[in-house]
Amino acid sequence: MTKKPPMESMQPACVEQARVPDDADRRAAAEKITEAHQEQMAPLAARPANPHTTRQRQELDRAYADVISPLPYDADATPVFQRPRD
Fold it and tell me: Is residue 82 a part of any domain in this protein?
């Protein structure tokens, strides 16, 4: 029988509960971002390939990846309400 490392047997100090966007909202945002990316890439695709346009394409692709990658995990702010008064 193997022993668990100490960290695996401990309870976490805290747990964060987060609300994630509805799948339909996430898909709509992803489609909008993808459409904007394609519009930005279209003029570059029409130009002949050279080091400058290659660098621009890479920068746009990197920016697109940075924007789209956290979408499914991007939590909405949890609303905070005042405590009801008696």
Answer: no
Count how many domains the chain has. 1
The alpha-carbon radius of gyration of the chain (Å, integer) is 22
CA distances to 3, 34, 39, 53, 82 from 43, in Å: 60, 15, 8, 10, 51
Q: Which of 80, 71, 78, 79 is nearest to 25 (CA)?
A: 71
CB 73 within 8 A of CB 21: no
| Residues 18, 78: Cα–Cα separation, whole Å | 7
Per-residue pLDDT of the chain (86 residues; tens, 9 = 90+): 566 566 677 777 776 666 666 778 888 888 999 999 999 999 998 999 899 999 999 999 999 999 988 776 556 666 667 777 76
Please report whether residue 41 resides in a domain.
yes
